[in-house]
Write a structure and sequence with these properties.
This protein is of the alpha/beta class. It has a single domain (about 5-145), classed as 5'-nuclease (Rossmann fold). Helix content is about 50%, strand content about 15%. Strands 1-4-3-2-5-7-6 form a 7-stranded mixed β-sheet. The protein is globular. The protein starts with a strand and ends with a strand.
Length: about 150
């Protein structure tokens, strides 16, 4: 199913945040790069499904474009890295219900707008674990756990 679109309501178990994908490509952070690459390899091979939230894909592309502007990547590299990432996991595209969930998460957990949107998109499709450096590890967001793979 990798490289396809996931249907909202389908039960998936894992998702990764943008920072995991960025560190997987970042030669400037070799320790985090190794951990991110190992995690991504495990998730690809895992019998438990992993999804890629649309917002995470967009944030990854934005970061790759910044690296392109800074001369770290060529345009071809940006496209290759992005396509390779899209091929790893099915892309989830949220429905309008994601906003209702995000409002609730934002209010109850004092999350940033974008963090509440990522978590809401994950909750909408049944993700139980999000791998992220940015969110509070160990926090239970109504059945959605955050694990910091770099801790």
């Amino acid at each position: 199913m990798a490289g396809e679109y996931a249907t909202p309501g389908t039960s998936f178990m894992n998702a990764v945040d943008t920072n995991v994908l960025i560190y997987g490509l970042d030669d400037n952070e070799p320790a985090k790069q190794a951990k991110a690459q190992a995690l991504l390899a495990r998730l690809v091979q895992s019998p438990v499904d992993t999804v890629l939230p649309w917002q995470v894909a967009g944030e990854l592309l934005s970061c790759l474009r910044k690296w392109e502007t800074a001369g770290r990547l060529t345009t071809a590299d940006v496209e290759a890295h992005f396509r390779d990432t899209l091929a790893l996991f099915p892309l989830i595209i949220p429905t309008v219900k994601v906003f209702e969930i995000a409002f609730d998460l934002h209010a109850r957990f004092s999350l940033s707008h974008w963090d509440s949107m990522i978590l809401a998109a994950c909750k909408e499709v049944g993700v139980s674990t999000v791998y992220s450096e940015d969110l509070a590890p160990g926090t239970d967001y109504d059945g959605l756990a955050v694990v910091n793979p770099f801790a």
